[in-house]
């Protein structure tokens, strides 16, 4: 079977594969006119919903309103790869800005966050197909292997004593990736079904008494006001939890760049196909390429695999239903078959894309401006499934401190709190920069694969510098 046969029946878009089994949710009622609350949360993804959850748990009398433009889980929280893991964007920069000890505290908090999500999901009866298999990242070229070893040591130096380094044979005992020469594994990770988590969370917060309005786009956030076409909600605290869609809000066009990530999901694999691959531990799987991939073995035994397609659309445009270009689907399929040659010809059931938010310095942040009552959390780049939970607990502490209901906490002193960064460049510089960066990463990967040298391509370092990543 050729790759075009494999994609003949592929569903393209439909928000994401994760909705294919459950169907898209029936939306909740929109806002019905002007209203007031104690806290307004804009955005019904993990950040907004976790924040509502923790605030309501801490202060059950708070009147909390969530305003969501479409339906909860419409954004990245309903489209991601389901890696619940301890990575946080910007940690190394925070170490440079605030000292190593502060960054180690942030990392430790992230490690605990993986446990926290698993714990709360269990406690609240959110059945999200969570499997704690850890995270396995593989190297397939000499250059990737040296990066892998350096990465492994770097992570251990942040206190991950339980991280393990594997050679080719031990890697194959876990997952048989063609040409894998080594891997690093951390137990601080789990696989999950993103939609089951986000729709479960929305139901939990509603049960706790949070008001959730869907089909309610916020057009502007002002101090103590969230403005929508159906009315304005006034509250002492307004929290922006809009991640990759932030550019659509008035005055926020250059705040966080909406970066695309795309995925495919195969048909369920047969027992014979799994026997050739292994992957019994259901680790989440990634690699050390500059234009990296990420994958999971789903609860129903498919492979869901993602990577960067068309990274960015001119003018910070965001997509709507997740439709993905044919060239991107082909490129992801190529990675799938390069990793697992025995799967050549396997059917792709679904392809989709989503947007994530990228700040100019690639550092995730949680902020509450005490003079205006405006708060926000995001800029997670590609690591938000766990980070959103830590961000939400931190927003809770900031709001409770600001309203005099609590004091400072361990979380309010983490180095990512109240971090400010400049905006992205205007177009066309923004578009040209991001296109150039990803073209350079792909060229660097090709060069490394061809050269067989153990050194990272200088091209990738140039792209990192241009992008402001390091
Ligand atoms: C394809 C893909 C794969 C990914 N894989 C992983 C992974 O495996 N592991 C990982 O850690 N991270 C991953 N991520 C990132 C992760 O999914 C996100 O960081 C996380 O979901 C962000 O959650 P959020 O609530 O901040 O944003 P979102 O989930 O995007 O939620 C924002 C919400 O705000 C709503 N909204 C936006 N603007 C408005 C407005 N003006 N008015 C009202 N509502 C508004 C949107 O509709 C949306 O529902 C991936 C992202 C993508 C796109």
TrEMBL record:
It holds the Pfam family DAO. One of its GO terms (molecular function) is oxidoreductase activity. Residues 38-398 form the FAD dependent oxidoreductase domain. The keyword Magnesium does not apply. Keywords: Oxidoreductase. InterPro entries: FAD-dep_OxRdtase (IPR006076), FAD/NAD-bd_sf (IPR036188). The keyword DNA damage does not apply. Its EC number is 1.-.-.-. Residues 449-470 are annotated as: Disordered. It is an enzyme of class 1 (oxidoreductase). This is FAD-dependent oxidoreductase.
